[in-house]
Each structure stands twice: as C-alpha cells, then as structure tokens.
Amino acid sequence: MTDGYLSSAEIRNRFLAHFEGRGHTVVPSASLLLDDPNLLFVNAGMVPFKPYFLGQETPPFKRATSVQKCVRTLDIEEVGKTTRHGTFFQMNGNFSFGDYFKEGAVQYAWELITGDQASGGLGFDPEKVWVTVLPEDDEARDAWKRIAGLPDERIQPRGLKDNYWNMGVPGPGGPCSEIYIDRGAEYGPDGGPEADEDRFLEIWNLVFMQEELSAVRAKDDFDIAGPLPSKNIDTGMGLERVAYLLQGKQNMYEIDTVFPVIERAQELSGKKYGASGSDGHLDDVRFRVVADHVRSSLMLIGDGVTPGNEGRGYVLRRLLRRAVRNMRLLGYQDPALPELLPVSRDRMGESYPELVTGWDRIAQVAYAEEDAFRKTLQAGTQIFDLAAGEVKESGAGTIPGEKAFALHDTYGFPIDLTLEMAAEAGLSVDEPGFRQLMSEQRERAKADARAKKGQHADTGVYRGILDANGPTEWLAYETLETESKPLALLREGAAVKALGNGEIGELVLDRTPFYAESGGQVADAGTIEFEGGKLEVLDVQRPVRGLVVHQVRVVDGELPADAPLLHARVDPDWRTGARQAHSGTHVIHAALREVLGPTALQSGSYNRPGYLRLDFGWLNALSPEQVHDIEQVANNALRADLPVDWQYMTLSEAKDWGALALFGETYDDTKVRVVEIGGPWSRELCGGTHVDHSSQIGTIVVTGEASVGSGNRRIEALTGVEGFSYLARERDVVGQLSTLLKTQPGDLVGRVGDLVERLKQTEKEIEKIRLAQLLSGGAALAGGAVDVNGVRLVAQRLDGAAGGDVRTLATDVRGRLAGDTPAVVVLIGAADGKASIVAALNDAAQARGLAAGDLVRAAAPFLDGKGGGKADMAQGGGTDVTRIDEALAAVTAAVAQA
C-alpha cells in the first residue's frame, strides 16, 4: 500500500514541511485550553483559527498549516470498546483565508498522500485512494478527475450529513470532500466508502467554506444567507489514522505512540493483549482504556490542567482514575502511573518537548491523583460493604441503582468496580436504574453546555467598525494621554447619535493611551474630555483583535457621536499602581520558582493597582517559612534594582530564549512580546504595562496563601503604597499591643505566648472546679431517688447544663445507686434555649425490661426533638425547653408501667 513504515513524528514533520514548502506559515499547536465558552478543550484543528473563519479578526497570513492537539470527551465511556474511539488525537491541517480554494486543496492533498516517501510524501498507492463529494459539487469532482486522474467510480457522491460542514450554529459552512484509503478485501466488501467504512478508511477531510449560514437546525438542515465575502479552506487529516495505515497496524491503539503503554501494562499485569475468548476481549478493552487515558492525561497535564471536581479538572480526574481502575481490573494492584506515564512521555516527547522539560510537574500532579484515588477505593470499599450488608439483611439480591450511583457520584467509586465486587458477594446491581440516573446527569450537563452557547458576544458590530476604520492606534506603552477622534458611539450594541449626562455607552477612538484588560491586568482608569463635557472611563476591552473599545459614563455635558476632537487621559496614579502590581506578579512568579522549584508554574493571575494574586500548580499548603522565603526573594529583587526590558520576537524564538508561555494563553507566532526582569531570572510572554526597574515596585508584601482547588494554590500580595500602608497598619497594631502589655515589640510574641499558656492553664483549673461542683450534686440527686414500681428513679431537670455535663452527671448518679436494685437515671438539661436529655440504667433495670433508648424516645416528643441509643445509655435533644416537666412525667409513667 505504501513505500514503507513512517513514525508518527515523521508523518507530522512531513505534513508540515509539505505545506511550508507551498507557502504556508507553520503555526504551532495551540494549547488544549483555548478560551472558548462553547468548548472545554480544543476538539478540532480549525478551532484556533475560528476568529478568522468567523470574520471576527483579520488573519496575519493567507495560508497556514498546523498539527493541532485535540481532545474529545463526549464518549469517554466508549473508549476501548471499539478501536475507533479515542480521547486525545492530533489533527494535521492546512488552511487558506481567501487565497486558494478547491483546486489548490485537492492538488496539495494529492501530492502529499501519493508522493513517494523518498521525496517527502506519504507514499499511498494512488489506486487505493477514494474520495467523496457533495452530489452537486461539480467543481470538486472535476478537480479530482483532472488533478488526480480518479475515475468516476472512485469519486462517490454522498449527502449533506457526510459531505457538508458547519459549526452547528450560524456562521461559515460549505461542502467538503473526504479522502479514503482502501485497506483491502480482508477488511470488508468492495464498493467504496458508501459500502463499508472499515475497509475504506477516511483519513482526510477537505472543507470548502463558501457560504454564510443564517440558521442551523441539524447537520443536514440549515438556511444559507448567501456566499461568504471570501472563500476559505479548512482541512483535517487524522494523524493517528494515517499512522496505523503507514505502520501496518490494525488500529490507532497499535501505533508507535500508543502501543508501548499497552506493552508495559502487559508486563505489569501478566495479561496478554489480543488473547482469545470473552475474558480476552474484556482485557483488550481495558488495555486500550489504559493506553488512551494515560496519553490523554499526559497531554492535559502538560497543558496545565489539574484534577478537580468540575470542568476540565473533572475530565482529567476521570481519565486518570479510569486508567488506574482498569489496571486494577487487569490484576495489577500497585501504583500504575509511575510505570506507565513515563512510557507515554518518551513517545510523545519527540513531537512535544515541553512534556520532557515539564516532566517533574506532570509527574507530581498525576502521581498525587493516583494516591488520592487509591484512598478513595479503600473508603468506597467500606461504603460498598455497608450497602451489600443492607441488601443481604433485607433478603434481596440486588444493590439498588441509587446506591450504585451514590458510590459513583459521591465517592468516585466506578460502576465497573461496583459490579465486580457485587458479583464476588453473590449480588447483582440494578444497572438500568444506575444508567438512568447517569443519563439524567448527562442530560443536565448537556443542558448546561447548550446554555453556555449563548455566551458568545455578538462581535459583528465591532467587526464592522474595524473593517471601516482599521485597527485602533494603541499607545498604552508610549504615553498616558492623546488627542483622539471618535469613530463610533454605541449603547447596548447599537450606534447612537449622542450620550446624555449620566448615560453609559461604548466609545471607539482612532487612537488611545488606555490599556485594555488582558493577561490578568485590569483596564486603565481615567477620563476623556470633549468640548463642553467630560467622560469617566469605566472599562476598556478588545472585543475583536485590533479594536479597543472604551466603556464610558458621561459625567458632564452631552457627548455627540460626531464630536470633532477628544482628549483621552489615563489616571497616572492608577497606571503607576497597575505597573507596580503587574511587574510584582512577574517577580513573585520568579521567586516562587526559585524557592519551590521549576514545577511551581503560574496557572492564572489578576492584578490591579496595589494588589496582585497569582495561582500556581502545587499540591500542598506552603509552610510559613516558604512564604517568608518567597517574600524575601521578591524584595531582594526589588532592592537589586533589576532592569525591566521587553522586546518582540517570534514565539519559537521566545521559547528558545527560555521565556515562559502561560497555560491557556494564545499567542501569535509572528510577533510576541517578552518581558524580562533581571535578564534570565524572569522571562515571560506578556503584553502588560511594567515598571522600568524592579525598585519602582516599591515593596511586595505577601498577605495570604490558600488553596483554590485540587493541585492549585493562590498567593496574594500588595505592592507600592498599598504595601507600605499594610505594613504601617501592622506596625500600629504591634505598637498598641506593646503598650497594652507593657513590653517591647521584640518581646511581644513571647509575652503573648505566656499569656495564652496562662489562659489555658486557668481554663483547665476552672473546668476542674466546675466539674467538681457538678459532681458534688450527684450525691444529692442519688439521695433523692424515688421508688416507682420497684425501680429507684431519678428524674430531674438541670437548668444551665448542656449535653456533655448532663451525660457526665447521669453516669455519676447511676454509679451511686445500688447495683442489685433496678435503677434509672433520666436528667434533662436546659441551656441556650435547647434541651439535652440523657437516660442511664444499671443492669438490674435492663433485666427488668427497661431500655434507655425507649425512655429517651418517650420524653423527646415533648421537647420537639428526638434521640435514642443503647439499653444502658441513651441521649437526645430538643428545641422546646418549656415542656421539660411534661417530658419527665412521661418518663416516670413509662417506668411505672414496666
């Protein structure tokens, strides 16, 4: 079928080289965590280019090519059951933005797939290539016939469901042409893709974006508003599919980047992949789950995801735990990830070297999650045992679906393990009931996802302004004030002729000194003045790339849309504070890495004048010593007056230079801004405003460190004047306490420690005295016992006594009564508006047929409460202290009837 074996990395490199040689800009894979309200993860190669296809932004190139990391999560539970489902995959793509169209796409694809391997092609036999087209797409059909020489019988027409692409929402769409490879008669019947898609395997989809869709009801049911202003190309070639064809394998699980994990899992478990029989089939599924989930988890952690209970973190947690669980089902009980994850790293690291350089952090996150899950399994086993015991006691043989679901949903206990353990216990599980509850949960999740689709802002109006006027001249790095012309005045998304006094709207200027919120830095504050009036700037954003939009409130006069000239001025104090905070964030990040090590990487940040917070991946709380060291390193950097510089370079150059690119951020490879503080000590990609020297930050005062989710910590700090003010307040508190305690500030900690210790000792002495006084009343209570039907009964009210004291006294009184005579002690305390009841019985009273729990239950209803316990001791409580005497009378009556 082909010239010979090609590794996955080689296929990737050949694809990129092929299109780079044909004028395409090579764009690095975007992070899996692009900021898109409709997506948890990037799930297609075109996702990073969506703004260009939607017309929201102007592409910086006419042609591009990429190999994009992708994750699809809708069918995680189906992974491994067939060889088609996978969570992580790589999509090779080439893209044209108003440049070449169908003929070019067909030409480039044909040259690559059929080109001989010695010349850089993939080497597929041209006689094995089939394609599909939309029936009415004569242009695509003609291109395949003319360029590739394909006969009519190998160009199959297929309908809209197969050969029309859209996003599922209004926007661009168009017909597509899918490329298939005939694997041979041993894989199925002849007849092309229409007959059998196992034998005829799709490897590449060429999408011809040429139409604007106004409504999309289904994949094959939509309305076309008209042609797109420019025709675009979006293609996607599945790297894993091409790999198993070129490597002579049966499926994606057997290729060079996946199967080594299965091989190691075989060694650990002693099981054989591909063994015959039903058990062998189940084991094969488990091997495939392990291989897929280990690789997917590696890639997600590599892009900054940490395990959690919602969103991306929950997906990662499921993947890791399913991998561990399936190793257990294969018979391997020891920690599995330390054995498997390095294998996947070694195979994927050739294409993604950041997996190697970031390995310590990745391993730390993954191994900690496995340790936690092993504890969950232990706890879940105890819960399962209780549930199984209840089922057996009731005489039933089936664990209810809601119990299985609670084990899964609340305790993270997988259903497969519940089924396995139930079978071992001779029980079954109500799987339909469990599946129904899972389905309901899934539907709720889908409804939430559908609701999120409404979060896209309508950027059409901003795009129109940008197209009509060009990008905003952004001068935030150069100046704090400019003379500007208004380009658009909006209110609630529509153009208006004027804004009146007190009204809020949006203003677009031809040039602006205002920093638009991004990279964790809030927007600048300031004013915009016009003849006869003044505006307060409330917010500054970039709804589309290149356009800066100011949200303003009219504080004086009326602003006309055609005002001739405006004066925009950033509040200088605000900008100074913002620069200090943003540079302080970089300093704290560098200090974190110096104190904790290179795995302490920033996962998010926020800074405003005088304040910063930085989230970073770390599993444990920092010790006070570590926090102090971080603060000390940071302030030493300020004292050193380190130079702060920035320069522009390509993304690849920045990474080679050692600059940190933060997780989840997107960067344009043609030009990125690298900010460095003290040379290589701190180098980060950043578009924020910064001080010129580190000393200008003033001070950094760490005010807090806390958890913000599994595997994530947050450190907060104050900078500049705000930091000094915080320290001044702390100084004042120290001074006041020193005066109050008549000691020197340096001796304050010791003095307070002595006071605390003396207070503790005093409290202990007071407790001893109080307990002695309480027990001293025990003799009087015992002496006041009355005979009720041959039972010595003490039934008394104790005002001011709470639960613990009531129990202590009841036990003491019971011990004072003779053991050979039935004795019952029932005491009801009243404190803070609540009643506490305790019943204590000796052995003789129990032999008489009395039980402490029954007596508490007889009294509790009068107290508007409940309670119970064992035959010798029981307790309860209530919220009605007005009927204690009635409750005691009920106890006396119950004893009398015994």
Automatic annotation (TrEMBL):
Reactions it catalyzes: tRNA(Ala) + L-alanine + ATP = L-alanyl-tRNA(Ala) + AMP + diphosphate
GO molecular function per UniProt: alanine-tRNA ligase activity; aminoacyl-tRNA deacylase activity; ATP binding; tRNA binding; zinc ion binding
Pfam families in the cross-refs: DHHA1 (PF02272), tRNA-synt_2c (PF01411), tRNA_SAD (PF07973)
Alphabetized UniProt keyword annotations: Aminoacyl-tRNA synthetase, ATP-binding, Cytoplasm, Ligase, Metal-binding, Nucleotide-binding, Protein biosynthesis, RNA-binding, tRNA-binding, Zinc
Span of the signal peptide: none
Domain Alanyl-transfer RNA synthetases family profile stretches: 6-729
GO cellular component, one term: cytosol
Gene3D superfamilies named among the record's database cross-references: 2.40.30.130, 3.10.310.40, 3.30.54.20, 6.10.250.550, Bira Bifunctional Protein, Domain 2, Threonyl-trna Synthetase, Chain A, domain 2
CDD domains reported in the protein's UniProt record: AlaRS_core (cd00673)
Protein EC: 6.1.1.7
Location of the protein in the cell: Cytoplasm
Family: Belongs to the class-II aminoacyl-tRNA synthetase family.
Protein name: Alanine--tRNA ligase
Gene source species: Nocardioides aromaticivorans
